[in-house]
Write a structure and sequence with these properties.
heterodimer, A: 308 residues, alpha+beta, Helix Hairpins, Heat Shock Protein 90, 3 domains, five-stranded mixed β-sheet, two-stranded antiparallel ribbon, 6 helices, elongated, B: five-stranded antiparallel β-sheet, 35% helix
């Protein structure tokens, strides 16, 4: 029997096509099994699950879409969880850092109430108790401020402002306080204008917290504020010649509630520097610290000139 | 299913007559950073290799995502990213070309995965530089980029900071932390540097000569270790008053309604106890805690320290 070579070729070709289609179908089937398993997993709450696809896969776009949905939900979930954690941290702070001064305050008031002290001693107890109450009030205020920053709820009012002039005004208020605390000072602010976009309240707060720290923690005799204006950025540095900070402590000082002396009842509230850090980063700037133990400490803030 | 992404039971590896890993049972919780700490040669890499099925297990069991690794490789591998020792890349291709090969082999979770993962580790996309010309730090980064290329749920990183400079180490630490906090990834990481693990890990397993000496959360360890005197008293406000007025104590914190921590460990506790009792404050207990994390590690590894 004569075989038509043309028909034979056609037969071979169709067999090849069928084989190719079967393979393709097999690959799609495999992919569907993987997609199904991943969807079940995602459905039970594992939003980290991804479906992988190769460039030539027919199911590629479906896989990418599933991944995007999982990724977006995951991002929302994590955001939610972070807000929850901020709240939890607030509650822990309230229970730890408020309890300590409160206990001591109650101790003083009880002594007065029960008539354990009288005369001059009594007046002194009242004075100490009132001081403690005020410190507690400041602490709670700072705590709420920090929580607001941490949760990203603080609203900033940026203005185009001469930073040098603003700094001079802030320092004018600080001079009597520094003198009272027995501190010598140097202030080096350039005469020229330096217009940048800042929230003046936030900037004031930054300088206040840093200077407050010098007075409370450093035991310094001299403090220097220096502003340097560069092409792209402005540097503000505050240097004191006090205790310094050890290299072990240095990486932690911007952490909330980190205090070098580990006590909750001593002066300060462990929030100042973390507030500074949050405020500076809201301005897209950086804050860094250098310290030589027992010699000096310098905090440097760099603010970009082109601001939000 | 339990909440452990990796669980090993009595995992053991014997090479010839040498037991490299001895009955190790570790538990890596979902969304946590688990630090495997141990000296060079303690068996960290072998444990990781056994978890990944890269080397046969002598005895014991490994479960990843609650499934046995053996037989489940095809389902499990796409969900893991790993760097074990130096990653293998083609020296005569660029970083981008190398990653594109891996993307083709394994598949990706998004269309622009190669670009994204290079961006994440701070390497340029479509750079002309050949892998053979990369510095050690860049090679390490490309290794990480490759490990996260398919956006896996679980990362297994063997000494990822090896060969990096101090700035590189700090960046890597920040980056690993970010993967955990912002993306909810689970990470198993090994290191021989205590401070490294202490800064990064949520949970820690300490390996010495193939034996798991301790497995614990960092939070627990930090709670246990510190320098302070813990005093339990009947009347806490009154106790603080006495401490402040008579002893000038300012460094203390209130733990709960009856517990105080004093941070000056040189205080004369005998005199304080006496003064408290004399003024009708009962002292229920007082305990002295004087352990830093380093001391603790020295203690459990038998005195030589870990690093």
């Amino acid at each position: 029997m004569e075989v038509n070579p043309f028909l034979l070729l056609l037969l071979l070709l169709s067999i090849l096509i069928i084989l190719w289609l079967v393979l393709k179908l097999h690959r799609v089937h495999e992919q569907l099994v993987v997609i199904k398993a991943a969807l079940e997993d995602i459905n039970t709450g594992n939003l980290n699950r991804r479906v992988l696809a190769r460039k030539g896969d027919m199911t590629k776009q479906i896989c990418y879409d599933i991944n995007e949905i999982a990724m977006n939900s995951q991002a929302r979930l994590i955001q939610h969880r972070q807000a929850e954690q901020a709240y939890k941290r607030l509650m822990t702070s309230l229970s730890h850092d408020v309890k300590t001064p409160l206990a001591s305050l109650v101790g003083y008031l009880d002594a007065i109430e029960h008539g354990l002290v009288d005369g001059k001693e009594r007046d002194e107890y009242i004075h100490v108790a009132s001081e403690k109450a005020y410190r507690l009030k400041d602490f709670v205020t700072a705590l709420f401020e920090w929580v607001k920053l941490d949760a990203g709820e603080q609203i900033f009012h940026y203005e185009l402002i001469d930073l040098n002039e603003l700094s001079r005004n802030i320092m004018a208020d600080w001079i009597p306080i520094l003198e009272n605390a027995g501190l010598n000072y140097d202030i080096e602010i350039p005469e020229m204008e330096c217009i940048i976009r800042v929230d003046p309240n936030a900037y004031t707060r930054i300088l206040n917290n840093l200077l407050q720290n010098v007075i409370i923690h450093s035991n310094a005799t001299h403090v220097k504020l220096c502003i340097t204006v560069e092409e792209q950025q402005v540097g503000i540095s505050i240097t004191d010649d006090g205790n310094g900070i050890s290299t072990e402590e240095l990486p932690h000082i911007f952490e909330r509630m980190y205090q070098c002396d580990h006590s909750r009842s001593a002066k300060g509230n462990g929030l100042g520097l973390s507030i500074v850090k949050e405020l500076v980063s809201a301005h897209k700037g950086t804050v860094s610290v250098e310290s030589a133990l027992g010699f000096k400490t310098t905090f440097t803030i760099l603010l970009p000139k082109a601001l939000p | 299913m339990s909440n452990f992404l990796i669980e090993t039971k009595q995992l053991t590896k014997i090479y010839g007559d040498q037991t490299t890993v001895n009955a190790v049972s570790i538990h890596v919780g979902k969304g946590r950073i688990y630090g495997l700490l141990g000296r060079n040669g303690a068996g960290k890499t072998t444990i990781m290799k056994m978890i990944l099925g890269l080397t046969p297990i002598t005895s014991g069991e490994v479960k990843v995502f609650g499934q046995n690794m053996k037989g489940g490789e095809k389902r499990i591998y796409p969900r893991i990213g790993a760097i074990i020792e130096t990653p293998g890349f083609y020296p005569n291709l660029t970083g981008t070309e190398n990653l594109e090969i891996f993307a083709k082999l394994r598949g990706t979770a998004a269309p622009n995965a190669v670009k994204n993962s290079l961006e994440v580790v701070g390497l340029p996309y479509k750079d002309k530089k050949l892998f053979s010309k990369y510095s050690l730090g860049m090679k390490q980064r490309l290794g990480i980029a490759n490990a996260i290329l398919h956006d896996p749920e679980l990362l297994i990183l063997d000494e990822p900071t090896n060969g990096l400079d101090p700035i590189g180490i700090a960046e890597m630490r920040k980056f690993i932390k970010k993967l955990s906090v912002e993306y909810g990834k689970t990470i198993l990481i090994s290191s021989h540097i205590l401070s490294e693990i202490a800064l990064l890990a949520d949970d820690i397993g300490i390996i010495d000569q193939g034996i798991l000496l301790e497995e614990s959360s960092m939070e627990e360890l930090r709670q246990k270790n510190g320098r302070y005197i813990q005093v339990q008293v009947s009347d806490l406000p009154k106790a603080t008053l006495i401490l402040e007025r008579q002893f000038g104590v300012k460094e203390y914190s209130v733990q709960d309604d009856h517990t105080l921590r004093l941070y000056n460990t040189t205080l004369d506790m005998a005199a304080i106890n006496k003064a408290l009792v004399m003024q009708d404050v009962a002292v229920i207990s007082s305990a002295f805690c004087n352990d830093t994390l380093e001391d603790y590690f020295k203690k459990i590894t038998g005195g030589e320290g870990i690093a």
